[in-house]
Design goal:
Elements (H helix, E strand, L loop, with lengths): L8 E2 L2 E2 H8 L3 E5 H14 L4 E7 L6 H9 L3 E4 L2 H9 L7 E3 L6 H10 L2 E4 L2 H11 L5 E6 L21 E2 L3 H11 L3 E5 L9 H15 L7 E3 L17 H19 L4 E4 L3 H4 L3 E12 L4 E5 L8 H5 L5 E3 L7 E7 L7 E9 L6 E4 L20 E6 L2 E6 L4 H5 L9
Parallel strand pairs: 3-19, 4-5, 4-12, 5-6, 6-7, 7-8, 8-9, 8-10, 10-11, 11-12, 14-16
Antiparallel strand pairs: 1-2, 3-13, 13-14, 13-18, 15-18, 16-17, 19-20
Bound molecules: pyridoxal-5'-phosphate.
Pyridoxal-5'-phosphate binds next to helix 10.
Length: 411
């Protein structure tokens, strides 16, 4: 347990030790927390055949993928490259659900040839799949249910204006294509967005899925997507997955009875599995006062953690070096030549130049969304497991930045 008297530790390893070994900025993941989040879902959804397809895009480090495979997860991927990472981490092709959006048909063909489970999100690609493969390649359908989910408009993807999925209004068109080519529909899928706390959103999706499923006789599974909220701010609550299970599991079982046989229940959690397990460790480079604001400039920016700027996401910040300092208000900003504000008007124990700060909830969509903007190398990554810190990705160097450049000499 974290105590003010103890140094700030992740998985039992003090952050100061890890920073001494690997420097800052540094991503650190608590492996035990990752596994326990998966187990929370495994334990909640009992009484059905459950498959948890970890949404790899949240954090694709191979060691994390391997850890999750060992704990019983499958994968959800959005690109051939993510699928290849999954294979490198030891997943079988059949464990991997390929859920792309807006990719070329050539990429879907590649996914078929790799033996992945295929999730189709447009009528055009369904038509092409049917024309090429007929009934020989089963596929899942990603439906757009026209549901507005969660409170953050930037991460809602199940509404009528979203690019994702095939509108539920086009169900007759779907059937026309499926019948024309005798396509074997083996799954139905809805994912409505991220940060979803209310079980009702999943129940609304379930009603739409159950209604649609009765007309597809060859289903093996129904996927309810991902999007479980985690708590970001002190006092905030995440999704109550036990409460969801209490509603969804009996509904699912009753549906399977009506359907005539048991189906598998799938989810694709990303954030729920890795968000709280991840921390970004940064150093305060500079304190700067204006007549209006006190800025803390840290040795990172939206090149390493873009969520606050991209999604208005809140990340709790801990001043590890001065936990008992007098509390003051700061704008915590990055070192990138853009307005990269991590936190505005945030109360923190007094920050001094050189202090070590920790961003919480940085495991999901942190490193995986990082870039080299301003020619800054991406951070190293460390996975703590069984009380030991393992370097799982080296900090990038200038060589990494120039590796694929072809230098043309015009002199
Ligand atoms: C199809 C699909 N499934 C699952 C997820 C994971 O969402 P979350 O990380 O909020 O659980 C995403 C995220 O973008 C997604 O697009």
């Amino acid at each position: 347990m974290q105590s003010d008297l103890l140094p700030f530790a992740i998985g039992g390893v003090p952050v100061t030790h890890m920073v001494e070994s690997y420097g800052t900025p540094l991503y650190v993941y608590d492996g035990q927390k990752i596994v326990s989040q998966l187990q929370t879902l495994q334990r909640a959804f009992t009484g059905v055949t459950l498959r948890l397809k970890y949404a790899a895009k949240a954090l694709t480090n191979l060691s994390v993928l391997k850890l999750l495979r060992g704990a019983g997860a499958d994968l959800d991927v959005v690109s051939i490259e993510e699928a290849q990472l999954g294979l490198l981490a030891g997943y079988r092709p059949g464990q991997i659900l390929y859920t792309p959006s807006g990719v070329s048909f050539d990429e879907i063909v590649q996914a078929v040839e790799m033996g992945l489970e295929i999730n189709i999100d447009s009528l055009s690609m369904l038509e092409k799949l049917g024309r090429k493969y007929g009934s020989s390649v089963p596929c899942c359908l990603r439906l757009n249910p026209h549901i507005v989910a969660g409170g953050n408009t930037k991460i809602q993807v199940g509404h009528i204006n979203s690019k994702f999925g095939i509108s539920i209004d086009y169900i007759e068109d779907i059937h026309r294509v499926v019948d024309r080519y005798q396509i074997n529909i083996n799954g139905l899928h809805i994912h409505t967005g991220s940060d979803i706390k209310d079980p009702l959103v999943f129940m609304q999706s379930a009603n739409i899925l159950f209604g649609a499923a009765l007309r597809f006789p060859h289903l093996r599974f129904i996927s309810f997507g991902g999007g479980f909220k985690v708590a970001y701010q002190p006092g905030e609550y995440g999704a109550d997955v036990q409460a969801l299970a209490r509603e969804l599991v009996p509904g699912f079982r009753a549906f399977c009875k009506r359907y005539g046989r048991d189906l598998e229940m799938w989810f694709e959690p990303g954030k729920f599995i890795v968000s709280e397990a991840g921390y970004l460790l940064v150093r305060a480079n500079v304190l700067k006062q204006t007549p209006a604001v006190t800025f803390v400039g840290v040795d990172s920016g939206f090149n390493h953690l873009v969520r606050p700027m991209f999604y208005d996401a809140y990340h709790e910040i801990v001043n590890v070096s001065n936990p008992d300092g007098p509390r003051r208000r700061y704008n915590v900003v990055g070192y990138i030549c853009e307005t990269d504000t991590f936190a505005q008007d945030r109360e923190l124990p007094e920050v001094r130049e050189g202090d070590l700060l920790v961003f919480r909830n940085a495991g999901a969509y942190g490193f995986s969304m990082a870039s080299n903007y301003n020619s800054r190398p991406r951070p190293a990554e460390v996975l703590v497991y069984n009380g030991k810190a393992h370097l799982i990705r080296q900090r990038e160097t200038l060589q990494d930045l120039t590796r694929n450049q072809v230098i043309v000499d015009f002199e």
